Predict the structure.
Amino acid sequence: MKKKHCLSFNIPNDRREIVHRLLITADCGEYLRPPPSERGLASFRGEFEEGELRLKKALDLVVQGGLSFRHIVFHEYSDDELCSFPLLKISIDCDPIGSKRSPGYGTSYDLKTACPNCGTGAIQTSSLALPPKLPSTLRGLFHGPGFELIVGERLMKALLDCSVTGIELRPTLATGGAKPHSFWQIIAKTVMPRMSLASKNLGRETRPGWGCNLCKRDMHICTNNEPLDFVYDAKELDLINIPDFVQTWECWGRSVLTDNPERQLVRGYASPWYLIKPKVFRIIRELGLSNVSFDPVRIV
């Protein structure tokens, strides 16, 4: 396992020339990105090894310059290392499709067993409704409007061929009577127990009006720039019988039962994290999907 750092920040237009010059002097010029549009800002996004001198130089530059920045630490594992863990957290590097949350496109939910205060835990009862027009670049695995997991035909068939357990592959719908999309939603049917208190860097947003004080299930967040470390108590699990694909009890994001334009709240429900066994990891690796990353989950 290698410990690595990701540093990113935007560069104000009035300071672009001098910041560019300093970054090039610090041997970090390769990480500079041009503005995405005429009104946009140039930016910087670089990945560094632990202890790398270039990281220190770049951090010193942004701190001394008073620039707002994001510094994330992550762990890079080999495939063999990842396969040695009983479960893996799967992450997709893409924004959710669409401009609304899922209920806004017509997806239906059963709230009988959900939190009566916020709706976390709502059961989706219909096919997931997607915008009628989707980017032509979508492939493999991506997020629906509410961060659902959506797969293309190749991955769908691979999951079926390998008899992956714990999932329903439900066809998606296009809103407005448009031609159906050739994508499927992965629904993980098993919810894991609560994580162990030994989990690290996992907390909840508890400011008034944010996380639900009744279920305390939504608005879980990473508490610092270190990676989330998910841990489960072995006494709470029957590892042999855990399906290949599960979801966490803890959810991230905000659950909202009804639209509230005054508070800029849109109806929708917090999303769980998805965990997989190494069997599913190997399927995804064999398909060569480049927008997917994995983190180990420990059972102690």
